[in-house]
Amino acid sequence: MTTRILTVVTNVGHFDNPDHPTGLWLSELTHAWQAFDDNGFEQTLVSPAGGNVPLEPRSLKFPYVDKTAKAWRADPAKMALLETTASPDQIDPGDFDAIYFTGGHAVMYDFPESQGLQAITRELYERGAIVSSVCHGYCGLLDTTLSDGSYLIAGKTMTGFSWREEILARVNKVVPYNAEARAKALGAQYEKATIPFVSYVVVDGNLVTGQNPGSAKETATAVAAALR
């Protein structure tokens, strides 16, 4: 049986101020894509609205862009995948063994409000499939409730981009909310690395979360291990 991963990407291209662009942090997709591909997994891209995925400009510059991101941008077939992503209503959750939420500040806007993504995530989680996120991807889990009405992340040990990292990245005054604080308010047992921006991954049952862009490969590796 082929293992199938549903990878979630954003459709948003800017902060509240249109003069401040954002989008998908490309390496958070490419590091995981390569790790999943190395394991022989089949991968599908989905976004809240379907269609085009803007790229975070900072993720395309030194020192953040790496060989996997450069290779993706140089591959017309791979770039085309970011122009034709599926929408949640085109996805059958039963076809997938795991969901992986990528990050970039853009996801703070369109991930939480997507009821379609919430429904997919709920079904996967409740049947024991893997639910995972990296960096701001955990914003896609904040509003997801289970069939009993409880929040998926309530009581779960998890991580994601920290407020301290927002401050150090100098975006704390432009982000729409404090994701770390929201996760804690919903009952999550939030953890983070002692040193900002280093790789940090938390596994709690079938929930796998990574803290920041540098955690993408380790997060995907943890997902693969959980699937095996």
UniProtKB/TrEMBL annotation:
**UniProt-recorded Gene Ontology molecular function terms:** glyoxalase III activity
Q: Which GO terms describe its cellular component?
A: cytoplasm
- Please provide the Gene Ontology terms (biological process) for this protein: methylglyoxal catabolic process to D-lactate via S-lactoyl-glutathione
- InterPro entries given for it? Class_I_gatase-like, DJ-1/PfpI, Prot/Nucl_acid_deglycase
SUPFAM superfamilies to which the protein is assigned, alphabetical: Class I glutamine amidotransferase-like (SSF52317)
What keywords is this UniProt entry annotated with? Glutamine amidotransferase, Lyase, Stress response
Q: Where is the signal peptide?
A: none
User: Which CDD domains does this UniProt record tie to the protein?
Assistant: GATase1_Hsp31_like
Claim: Glycosyltransferase is one of the keywords in the record: no
Q: Which Pfam families match?
A: DJ-1_PfpI
**Boundaries of every DJ-1/PfpI domain copy:** 27-224
Similarity comment: Belongs to the peptidase C56 family. HSP31-like subfamily.
- Write the protein's name: Type 1 glutamine amidotransferase domain-containing protein
Organism of provenance: Gordonia jinhuaensis
